[in-house]
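Thread title: Can someone regenerate the structure for this chain?

I was given the following input by a collaborator and told the matching structure tokens would be attached. They weren't. Posting the sequence so someone can regenerate them.
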Amino acid sequence: MNGRPLAEFELRMRGKVGQPGLGTVFGWTLALALFSGGLLASSPAAKAGGGLTHQHYVVREEHWSIQVVRIDRKRPDLKLVTALGGGDQLGLSTMTDQLRLIPKEIGRPVAALNGDFYRTDGRYEGDPRGLQILNGELVSSPGESTSFWIDAKGHPQMDEVISKFAITWPNGKQERFGLNEDRGRDASLYTPAMGRSTQTPSGVEFVLEAVDRSKWLPLEVCETIPARIREIRRSGNSRIPPGSMVLSLRSSSGNSGATSAVVGDVIAISTETVPNLRGVKTAIGGGPALVSGSRVQPIRVARSRERHPRSAVGWNKDEIFFVQVDGRQRHSSGITLPELAEFMARLKCEEAMNLDGGGSSEIWMNGRILNRPCYGHERSTANVLVVVKKDVEDES
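Best answer:
Regenerated them for you:
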């Protein structure tokens, strides 16, 4: 790495999935050469079975401990989903707890990687910074960075997703809104995924009910949904009744179309995005992009050249890769974003995206945490990217 055409790698294969230092070492160490053409290995990785493969790379020269879980894309019984800190609501919890909260009908978790950056304090603690779609439900709006999703045909995708979320008032005026987040000076829509109430300190809030139950909750992306105003409150922190949504504005003065809105009026809620994500059931935010079109991408974010624990998701036509690098510890110092991008490319990823790092960086497979979180324990996070196993007959 670091521009050198050749670096020596050491790969230790473990016969038992577990934290580094626990598992059975196969009794041999394989030297690998990292050429400009790619990462060359002449021995199989530790097979976990069921379409999963685990590799642990110990790169002594760079002081790295890297965990890689490969997911076979040809397996119809494996699919990617997201989990949420509060199960079906925003919140913070450990990866282990989030996996326990996944409904059985979704599938059995077999691998997981920590997800998006998130808010760590205040009334909206646990709010993902970017997009999240949970089993088809839109729970968080796109941020200003890259998102990862599984498209309607089952293919992984990565791009900057732009929110076109807007309310159309009865007088035809439109108003942009965020979703389940700090309203600030703008409008925000709150669904039951927010919890019991909007948590807003003040403002004008419209309690909304369904006009057409076939176009209502759970909220879906790239839909236009009619909603009837059931109640108007002017004190903030409105309760979110079951089966309802609440639209919160800082005020209804000025040019807002809310000025003349009254109870009984019908408004239109648009959840359009660019690109169009209609039909997407799984999406998560993160960023920046690391690899695109098999090319390492330029990284232009703050602190990108500092070494920290980091996580990334990548893929090619055959496999999806969950990658985690330990850091801030004796056994592994961490990795920079350019170095991580280079590593993902040498794994033959055609596309790859960074996820949250630092104390949140964690990878899990078949009931065990594979890495050593830098705080010495699991950190509570907002969401997780998960591989679940489900019988094909059940899926159909």
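Residues 1-44 have pLDDT under 50 and may be disordered.
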